[in-house]
Amino acid sequence: MNKIHVTTTVNGDPVEYLCEPQETLLDVLRNQLRLTGAKEGCGTGDCGACSVTLNGRLVCSCLVLAAEAGGQEVATVEGIADGDNLHILQKKILEHAALQCGVCTPGILVAAKALLEKHPDPTEVEARYWLAGNLCRCTGYDKIITAVMDAAAEMRGA
Amino acid sequence: MVKVTIWGSLRAATDGAAEVEVEAQNFKQVMSELERNYPGLQAQIAAGASLAIDGKIYREAWFTPVYPDSEVVLMPFMVGG
Amino acid sequence: MALDTEKREFKIIGTRPLRPDGIDKVTGRALYGADMVAPGMLEGKILRSPHAHARIVSIDASAALALQGVKAVVTASDFSEAKGELMQNILENCMAQDKALYHGHAVAAVAATSETIAKQALKLIKVDYEVLPHVTEIEDAVKPDAPVLRPDRRAKGAPEGTPANITNLSNFGHGDLEAGFAKADLIIERSFRTESTHQGYIEPHACLASMGPDGKADLWCCTQGHYAVRDMCASFLGMSLSQLRVTASEIGGGFGGKTVVFIEPVALALSRKAGKPVKMAMTREEVFKASGPTPSSLADIKIGMTKGGKITAAHAKLRFQGGAFPSGTIDLGAMCAFAAYDLEAVRAEGFNVMTNRPREAAYRAPGAPIGVYPVEALIDELCIELGLDPLDVRLLNAADKGTKSSYGPTFEAIGLKATLEAAKAHRHYNTPLGPNQGRGVSCGFWFNFGGSTSVSMSVNDDGTVAVTEGNPDIGGSRASVGMMAAEELGIPYENIRTIVADTNSIGFNDPTHGSRVTFSVGLATIEAARDAIKKMCTRVAKIWDIDPDAVMWEDGHARPAGENAGNYEPMSLAEIAAIASKTGGPIAGHYEVNADSAGVSFGVHLADIEVDPETGFSTVLRYTVFQDAGKAIHPAYVEGQMQGGAAQGIGWAMNEEYIYGKDGLLQNAGFLDYRIPVASDLPPIEAVILEIPNPGHPYGVRGVGETAIVPPLAAVSNAVSRAIGKRMRALPMSPPKILKVIKG
Description:
The complex is a heterotrimer.
Chain A: E1 4-10, E2 13-19, H1 25-32, E3 51-54, E4 57-60, E5 73-75, H2 88-95, H3 105-118, H4 124-130, H5 142-157
Parallel strand pairs in A: 1-5
Antiparallel strand pairs in A: 1-2, 3-4, 3-5
Helix pairs in contact in A: 2-5
Chain B: E1 2-5, E2 19-22, H1 27-37, H2 42-47, E3 49-53, E4 56-58, E5 72-76
Chain C: H1 22-27, E1 42-48, E2 54-60, H2 62-66, E3 70-74, H3 85-94, E4 99-100, E5 106-112, H4 115-124, E6 126-131, H5 138-141, E7 166-174, H6 177-182, E8 186-194, E9 206-211, E10 217-221, H7 226-237, E11 244-248, H8 264-274, E12 278-281, H9 284-290, E13 296-305, E14 311-321, H10 329-336, E15 346-353, H11 368-386, H12 390-397, H13 416-425, E16 437-446, E17 451-459, E18 465-469, H14 477-489, E19 496-500, H15 517-544, E20 551-554, E21 557-560, E22 571-572, H16 573-578, H17 580-583, E23 587-595, E24 601-611, E25 618-628, H18 635-654, E26 685-690, H19 712-724, H20 735-743
Parallel strand pairs in C: 1-12, 10-11, 14-15, 18-19, 25-26
Antiparallel strand pairs in C: 1-5, 2-4, 2-6, 3-5, 7-15, 8-13, 9-10, 9-12, 13-14, 16-24, 17-18, 17-23, 20-21, 21-22, 24-25
């Protein structure tokens, strides 16, 4: 088995790993780096539960090969809070009870953060379309969208 | 005696009767008497059955009392999602 | 039971505190089924049938076992014989025996040192299949010459000539139908169809099993009920219950689909054979192919109505397809179909039919959406024909306290009329519609259940309290349980930590299903708190040297009561706890109960939908849910249940369906082709909570989890039908299907 040596950064920390050519970034994050915040809901890029950013760009980590992450900046849900200080999005998701089972929540947070970094003042429709790649089966999205819009407003004001 | 309503698909076991009378003071006695008087009900009761007593559904509550004027309805053992 | 709602003001109940597991869930720390590891762990994978129906002539695993890294292979022969028909069916669904009964049915499983090797090993297992004719649709499965799945499973007591695939006969109702129809001014009879849908939880089934050479085992898994998992797995592996400890992980959605086992006994069998821990996780494709969808259905509904809108008689003939095994969901569908109405003559009858599809599993109010949809759709058609307002007609016929329900018992106090009146008065119902828009109305009903429940709580020395319960928290129940404990004890919510314990740590608990948790666990929590309070009052009575009955509990303090009032300084829970070892030892409360009196639940939904007449594409413009929650403990999570149930029902109505080809194979086993609603598909969903207290719970709680999935099917269908001016009578109403009706 020929493994590939990869050097990258995850949530700002330097990371090295050996991966098989077919292994996905999600596999390595979860199984080697033990960052299990990203979830495998489908493995085919349809559910968004494995969302991470690669150099700031929102991707499904199940569709990225682990070898492709070399030399890039990977950001996962584990890096959203600043130490003990929750990000505004995390606070708003909690305040608005915008999670039930919580398994889609890491992906939603990563995707919503990417949205607000690019579009600090989205309309509700824009937020809904941006998050259309993140399936949630529990909430009907209502409280998630409310939380994201509330976070956006607070971040603009901050 | 307590009147027990039997749901449609079980009436083959009660000679077509929609309502039967049993001598019982509680849930368990209702079930035992039904099984004794109508052996055709045994399979269903063994597989699971509930009783609605005065509008409340009891799934396995042997000592819940029933009175002569109680409304008692035999129902399937029900589960939710 | 006396209603506390009538005699006290709540301090915590009805507020919206943060959930205690929230920070773990927004930071990625929470551990779900697939997030656990163990030293020396193997990866398990399942070989599944590529055929819809086939006899398994032989299985040769020698080449797989010879592959380096492969540690065990199991087949049906590695399991014990299950007791009783239901358990036998669940076991056979986990692992095929002499026949593969559907596309994706598990046939063998392998454990290896890596997932890659396990996948290679699956390819090396040689299964000799004798392919049999298959059947996947209701119409075909009831034909006299249909392929028969299991001749011995035909409904017992079925009349001579009943087709062999028919399993569960159902028949509920009362009154004289003929006389009822004779009184009608208008009788309409229509046929409806619904397709199988999947619960669609985002987390696939996953577990980690570890059995030692002494036969003791631990199982970590995502489930709605770890005690049920323990009981089923122990039975299938021939273990005693005390030898198997099951811990429920955080659960990524279940909706009924995680009340039964699929991979858990297989992982245990592999671990037993390999002597190492085995982790298994389903792929999404496996979830669709082999975990439970709902039944599909055909329905013939006949309703008679007077000119004034009074229903004179109602008759439903339902046929459910519940996959390759018998299914009692038809009973629930038949019982719920007409439950919202006060009817003199009503009958709902039907049967279940077996097909070469996966075994049906419970999905939120199982059977109710399928039973209620055609009834609510036909009532809407009657309203249009007679020129009547759909809410007025429902109000006129609504069941109320004292109504003999369509399934037998007489209703106690129920909230249907109040819910309908709230819908009628709401601004949504009185907002004008634009062109190509329609407004749909539907009622929904669910029983709600209680069940076996155990709760214990320890009063810590510092005055905080540890609450231990045994029901996996799917939607915020740790919060509502903690709130009820805090309310009853009179201490701050923040001073309570609620955990969901493993099967060894607390008594039995029925699964998190049937909308039972806030009701039953809440009831047991309140009683456990009262038990602890009684003990604390007894201690304080000793300290004060007065009669225990002369000590009362108020606001988190023991206070002297009656003639002693004012004679002693009240003692707080923290003060009592701090000296517990001196006054007799640790203080704890517990309560175990098989809770009844859950109280039935009704909901009314309003849907506004616009249909593009060129393409058949429909857009949900506005959606409002009205539901009786009894007392809402944490209103935000009650709203969440109402909104989430509505969204699932909208998906069921508009897009979701299992599609089988003529080859009997599932065509759309993935989220791309099985489309659940995404954020941009839905409008805001307004949730209007009505609080008609349930007399069977000390705080008046009613289950709320399931009812909200019942009304959307007809609410959406009625809205689309009104928008296009023609009746839709089949789900899902995807754009091509709507277009066909528009053009037809």
